[in-house]
């Protein structure tokens, strides 16, 4: 089996892509061979021995590309360790149910997979990219604008993944 690790992500405005790349960089630093690829560019995952999946939350759901990816590749994904994360503004919502709801949406997008590790990271929202209707939705959902990505939290999560996923750089099969 190939020794590579895949970080597969969806993104609409780029902030989840940057999180995925930061995670990939930690794996590279730890000695792994890593590909960080946007889901829409992926046509096979054959050979990867571990996969990290990430996507942004929009209107209460994780971007649909994540569900399509897990659906398309579920046979392979059930045989290798999988970890997943979502990026969203729910962690900045004063209502704690927002995080619960977001974690539920993340799990739903991954079904029937049961990842070894799940995370919800605060994302980035550029108010200039939001139209009037969207702004109303965001106000109602109490979602603030700004860049809330916590790089220390993200990189610490990534550094802990090899142990949780039961993989090491030296192991080739
Ligand atoms: C129209 C819109 C709807 C959003 N809906 C949610 C949501 O339901 N829950 C959430 O936690 N974040 C929500 N967000 C925040 C995004 O998840 C956040 O900006 C994320 O970092 C975007 O990732 P991307 O830049 O990779 O597309 C929303 C943002 C926009 C613009």
Summarize this structure as a short list of keywords or feature phrases:
alpha/beta, Rossmann fold, 6-stranded mixed β-sheet, 6 helices, 38% helix, binds flavin mononucleotide
From the alpha carbons, calculate the radius of gyration and give it in angstroms. 16 Å
Instruction: Estimate the strand proportion.
Output: 15-25%
Task: Say what the CATH topology is.
Answer: Rossmann fold
The CATH architecture can be named as 3-Layer(aba) Sandwich
Instruction: Name the helix and strand elements from N-terminus to C-terminus, one letter apiece.
Output: EHEEEHHEHEEHEH
Helix/strand structural class: alpha/beta
Number of domains: 1
- In total, the number of strands is 8
Query: Overall mean pLDDT score?
Result: 93
CATH superfamily: Flavodoxin domain
Distance between the termini: 5 Å
Shape, please? globular
Please identify the top-level CATH class: Alpha Beta
Report on this structure.
The protein has 173 residues and is α/β, with parallel strands linked by helices. The chain has one domain (4-163): Rossmann fold. 38% of the residues lie in helices and 23% in strands. It contains 6 helices and 8 strands, in the order E-H-E-E-E-H-H-E-H-E-E-H-E-H. The strands form 2 sheets. Strands 1, 2, 3, 4, 5 and 6 form a 6-stranded mixed β-sheet that branches. A two-stranded antiparallel sheet has the order 7-8. Helix 4 links the parallel strand 5 (82-88) and strand 6. The radius of gyration is 16 Å and the shape is globular. The chain starts with a strand and ends in an 8-residue tail after the last helix.
């Amino acid at each position: 089996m190939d020794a590579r690790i895949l970080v597969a992500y969806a993104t609409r405005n780029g902030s989840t892509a940057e999180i995925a790349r930061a995670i990939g960089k930690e794996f590279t630093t730890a000695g792994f061979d890593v590909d960080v690829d946007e889901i829409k560019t992926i046509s096979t995952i054959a050979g990867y021995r571990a996969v990290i999946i990430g996507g942004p939350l929009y209107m209460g759901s994780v971007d649909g590309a994540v569900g399509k990816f897990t659906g398309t590749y579920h046979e392979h994904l059930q045989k290798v360790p999988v970890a997943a994360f979502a990026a969203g503004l729910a962690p900045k919502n004063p209502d704690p149910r927002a995080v619960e709801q977001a974690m539920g949406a993340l799990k739903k997008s991954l079904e029937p997979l049961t990842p070894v590790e799940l995370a919800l990271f605060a994302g980035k929202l550029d108010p200039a990219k939001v139209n009037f209707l969207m702004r109303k939705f965001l106000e109602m959902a109490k979602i603030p604008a700004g860049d809330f990505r916590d790089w220390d939290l993200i990189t610490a999560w990534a550094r802990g993944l090899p142990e949780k996923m039961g993989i090491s750089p030296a192991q080739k099969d």
